[in-house]
Specification:
Helices cover 47% and strands 14% of the residues. By secondary structure, it is α/β, with parallel strands linked by helices. The longest helix is centred in the last third of the chain and has 24 residues.
Length: 385
C-alpha cells in the first residue's frame, strides 16, 4: 500500500506538471517569435551593453567581438567592467575592438571588487550602471550580458525590436549552453529543463502571473524602470541574480524570457565535476538557505524522479504499472529539451539518474554553505553566512 501511494503521488505530480505548469516542457517561448515579423528598430535607438568580466581572457575577444559586430541600426556601445582581472582580460578586449575599428565604442571600467553584502557580479553590474546613469545622453536600453557568450549578428536588433513593440521593461534570453562533451550532453539539457520547470517561461511572460525570472546571460533592461525599482542595490546580495532582477523588474511592467539558438555559451563543462561546481554554487540559494525547504526538495525529487522507475522495475502491481506510466510521462516531457540540443530522445529515459545527480548536487550545495564555502565563484565565497 505504501509503495502504491508513492507511485500515485509521483504520477499525480507529473500530470500536474504536464497539464498545469504553463506548458514549460513544450519550449514555445523563443526569441524568433519575440518581435513581430517586419518590426524594425528606429535609427535613433541607443543601447549600451554592460559586460562584467572576471578573468575571461580565453573568451573575451570572441564575446566582445560578437557584440561589436551586431547588425544594429541605432547607436550601440559596450562597457566592459573589469572585476579585478589578473589575466589581461581588459587588454585583450581593447585589442579586439581596435582590430574591428570599433575602439571608440568600447569603454573599460575598473570595479574594485564587491563591497560587504554584495555579490561580485551584481557589484560589477552596478559599477557599469552607475557609469551609464552619469552619461550626458541616456540610452533607451541597457544590455546586461555575460562575458563568456557569443552573439550572432541579428540578435540585438531582434531583441530591441521585440522589447519596443511589447513594451517590456526586461527581456532576457536563455543562451544555448555548450553541449559537446559527454558530461554536457547528459546534464546540460536537464539543467535547462529544470530551470523551465521552476520558472515556466510562459508564466514569466504573463503580466498577470506572479511568476518572475530571467536568464543572466542576456538581459535587456529599460534603465529608467530599473532605477525606479531601486536599482541593483535592491538585489545586491542575490546569488541567483538574474531571477532576482526578473522579480524586481516585474514590479515595474511586463517582462519576457525565452530561448534562443543565436546566443552561444563559450564556457565548457568537460567533466561531471564542472557541472557540479556550476550547480552547487547557487542550488541552496534557490531554497532560501532553508534546511526545511532542503528536506522538502530532496523528498520531492525522490518521489517525482526516482520512485517511478524504481517501482516500474522492482515494484509489484499496481505500483509497478503506475510507476511505469509516470516514467513514460516524465520521458515524454523531457524529449523536447533533448531535441532542442540535437540529442537522441532515447536519453529521456535516463532523466531519473540525472535527477539523482542534481539531487546530490543540491545536498552538496547546502553542505558547502554550512561550512562557509557557499556561492563559490573564481576564488570568492559569496553566499551569506
Amino acid at each position: 500500500m505504501v509503495f502504491t501511494l508513492i507511485a500515485i503521488a509521483g504520477l499525480a505530480a507529473w500530470l500536474y506538471l504536464l497539464i498545469f505548469n504553463s506548458g514549460f516542457w513544450r519550449l514555445t517561448e523563443h526569441d524568433r517569435k519575440f518581435a513581430p515579423e517586419g518590426a524594425t528598430v528606429p535609427a535613433a535607438t541607443h543601447v549600451v551593453a554592460i559586460v562584467p568580466a572576471r578573468d575571461e581572457a580565453e573568451v573575451i575577444a570572441t564575446s566582445v567581438g560578437s557584440l561589436l559586430g551586431q547588425n544594429f541600426p541605432g547607436r550601440f556601445e559596450v562597457v566592459l567592467v573589469d572585476d579585478e582581472c589578473t589575466d589581461g582580460t581588459a587588454e585583450i578586449a581593447r585589442a579586439k575592438a581596435a582590430e574591428l575599428g570599433a575602439a571608440e565604442r568600447l569603454s573599460v571600467l575598473q570595479s574594485g571588487g564587491p563591497s560587504d553584502g554584495w555579490t561580485g557580479k551584481i557589484a560589477a553590474m552596478h559599477r557599469g550602471f552607475t557609469h551609464v546613469r552619469g552619461l550626458e545622453r541616456q540610452p533607451d536600453f541597457i544590455l546586461f550580458c555575460d562575458a563568456d557568450i557569443a552573439f550572432e549578428p541579428p540578435v540585438l536588433a531582434r531583441l530591441v525590436a521585440g522589447a519596443t513593440v511589447r513594451g517590456t521593461v526586461l527581456s532576457s534570453l536563455m543562451v544555448k549552453l555548450r553541449c559537446e562533451s559527454a558530461a554536457e550532453k547528459w546534464f546540460v539539457p536537464a539543467f535547462v529543463f529544470f530551470f523551465q520547470m521552476l520558472y515556466p517561461f510562459r508564466a514569466v511572460n504573463d503580466a498577470k502571473s506572479k511568476v518572475a525570472g530571467a536568464a543572466g546571460g542576456v538581459m535587456l533592461a529599460r534603465p529608467e524602470a530599473l532605477a525606479k525599482a531601486g536599482g541593483l542595490p535592491a538585489i545586491r546580495d542575490a546569488l541567483i541574480d538574474d531571477c532576482a532582477l526578473g522579480a524586481l523588474m516585474k514590479t515595474q511592467g511586463p517582462i519576457w524570457l525565452g530561448l534562443t539558438d543565436d546566443v552561444h555559451s563559450l564556457r565548457p563543462y568537460p567533466h561531471l565535476a564542472d557541472i557540479e561546481r556550476m550547480v552547487t554554487r547557487s542550488a541552496y540559494a534557490q531554497l532560501d538557505y532553508s534546511p526545511l525547504k532542503l528536506a522538502g526538495a530532496l523528498l520531492g525529487m525522490i518521489i517525482v524522479y526516482l520512485a517511478p522507475p524504481l517501482l516500474a522495475i522492482f515494484g509489484e502491481s499496481p505500483a509497478r504499472e503506475i510507476g511505469l506510466v509516470a516514467w513514460l510521462i516524465m520521458a515524454q516531457a523531457y524529449m523536447p529539451s533533448l531535441r532542442f540540443y540535437g540529442l537522441s530522445r532515447a536519453r529521456a529515459f535516463a532523466l531519473p539518474l540525472i535527477a539523482a545527480c542534481y539531487t546530490w548536487f543540491t545536498a552538496v550545495s547546502a553542505w558547502r554553505h554550512m561550512r562557509g564555502r557557499g556561492g563559490e565563484w573564481k576564488g570568492r565565497f559569496q553566499a551569506p553566512a
